[in-house]
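Why do we care about 3D structure at all? Because function follows from shape, and shape follows, mostly, from sequence. That is the central idea of this module. The next example makes it concrete: a single protein chain, its amino acid sequence, and then its structure expressed as tokens.
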Amino acid sequence: MRHIYAVVIVFGLTCLSCSDDFLNPLPDTAITVESFFQSDADVLAGLVGIYDAIQGVNENTNTNNTEVNRGVQFEYLLTEHRTDNTRSATLEGSKADFHRYLVNPNNVQSEDYWASMYEVIFRANNVLDFVMQADEENRAAYAAEAKFLRAYAYLNLVRLYGDVPLVTTVVVPDDKESLFTRVETTTVYAQIVEDLQEAAANLDNTSKSRASRAAAQGLLAKAYLSQPSPNYSGAQQMCEAIINSGEFSLMADFHDVFYSELNDEIIWSIQYESGNAQESQSFSSEFTSAVRAGREDGLNILNDNLIQDFAAYGGNRSAVSYTTIGTSNEVTKFLPDGFGVADEYGPNSRNAGNDWIILRYADVLLMHVEAVMAGAGSTGNTAALGSFQAVRDRAGLTTPVSTITSDDLLVERRVELAFENQRWYDLQRFGIANEVLSAHAAEMGYADYSARALLLPIPSREINLSSGLLTQNPGY
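And the structure:
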């Protein structure tokens, strides 16, 4: 929960000044950027500033969505809410549009996430433009870290929006063709793979809150599995590199994964600081509902079929993952600073310090199974069985399995990684997103669901900035 991303004000102001165009600075900021990057310390500060863009600004600190970006703090809306996992307790406001498949091109949370990820890309490109100002012995690692972060942002964007603008250099603001031309998904993935391969080759595993070799290998495995033509052997190699490194292990107690931060299972997480308005997060309070803790509350309520899967397959993960209070089924993986309803969610519920876990070892073990399965309906491979059983054993489900089906793997990922924003991407990779979501929408009475929901709409603001050059996804 300790925050490490403070960066000098000059760099922060430089980035904020691009609020009308999150791909590139406005002309009057170019001098500021050039004068800022003068030394190794400046380049390092620029790198650290990229994490600020991922972390985002607590909605409780600044409620104005036009002034600041939320980073990953809205991500659950774009992912968990658009699956059969969770929903909003209310039908009011733009946040409630996600779970009912009503998101339109003017949705402020989708617009914010797009802007946040391109802010990451913008900052990474700036660092890469000035990396030669760093000490020679640090240049390769700094460049690798910037490319890792750029690849992370593009991996999120391409999976949510499809074809997106691919900008890998700092370009002049009026170069709209470079800034707003959508590039085919396969080309975006090729850049992601290239960036992550360089990151894996030039980083070490000294950090869990910044880019590392294992984090690059793990994201590369996800990219290999997610790209239109999956590279299963490449994903298997990346997962096995992490497994065989011996540097990560499953926590014995599932609870400790989330409340003993930067633990042995964490590969990469984004840090927050409790009680610090500028460095905290508010999503933990918004997941609550029994006692009013957040500004809105009840924004990640469990659907009944997820509860049924927890009952059948959750083991000891269920009690850590959610709780039933009266008629409310709410997430407990990220209770604000660990405080539950008996403590009214603690003294800093709206300024919580829970880290956001982006990649952990259990995810890698289950991706390893997926990679070995290589698109088949089942596997009895010994290595895959070992990875699968390790996750189940920790959950108290110790009965050995001799065969793993794709359905087994999908439900295991669902209960292991619930509320960690993985379900949407899992359904995509397994090729059953439309099947599962159309059935879910019918069950819930969401009449507006259609296959168009498999991609989010390109934000209207960006299309307007592009003077129409940026095209819209089908059906919007």
